[in-house]
Amino acid sequence: xxxxxxxxxxxxxxxxxxxxxxxxxxxxxxxxxxxxxxxxxxxxxxxxxxxxxxxxxxxxxxxxxxxxxxxxxxxxxxxxxxxxxxxxxxxxxxxxxxxxxxxxxxxxxxxxxxxxxxxxxxxxxxxxxxxxxxxxxxxxxxxxxxxxxxxxxxxxxxxxxxxxxxxxxxxxxxxxxxxxxxxxxxxxxxxxxxxxxxxxxxxxxxxxxxxxxxxxxxx
Length: 219
Known about the structure:
The chain is α/β, with parallel strands linked by helices. It is built from 8 helices and 9 strands. It has helices spanning about 5-10, 25-35, 50-60, 70-80, 110-115, 130-145, 170-180, 200-205, and strands at about 40-45, 60-65, 85-90, 90-95, 100-105, 115-120, 150-155, 185-195, 210-219. A 9-stranded mixed sheet has the order 3-4-5-2-1-6-7-9-8, sandwiched between helices. A hairpin with a 2-residue loop joins strand 3 (about 85-90) and strand 4 (about 90-95). It is globular.
């Protein structure tokens, strides 16, 4: 999952991971983090997610980071916004209407360049990375956040092969192993489907699939 991989996916418009609607779990659980929020909501590996416009309208200003400038430009274009471009540390920043998206490598982001982060919303970042990078990702996230900062994490899991992805299946045990040192971890919701509720799972040879919603708080 190197930079070239994701740049090519956006160049070729192979973005099946993109959701055209606002995530239902974000809408259901936004009060969990909105009530304690002081600063922007950070959306790592943000792509052109519609969730960012919803967050800006209903929760707070938004800070995103994304490797592909094509994704960032598409977001503002589709929102009908003209972004002002500046340089912020190692990043090119695109800003309009309370949304600031940084073009560059998440792992190069520093707390100074990010500014005050009040909360984190992660639907598609952790699960986009293979296992070794997930460790780095979680460790780096801890360096960006102040104690008490909440993180809303949506992570699907199914018993498929460990190399299948992205998106990758991430279990509760792995979430706790990744974040347990630096974050308090709780499960806010579980949603499980079986072949009876989603017949396509039978075609894929899967006995079930889950979408789990975690609430993390920086220690």
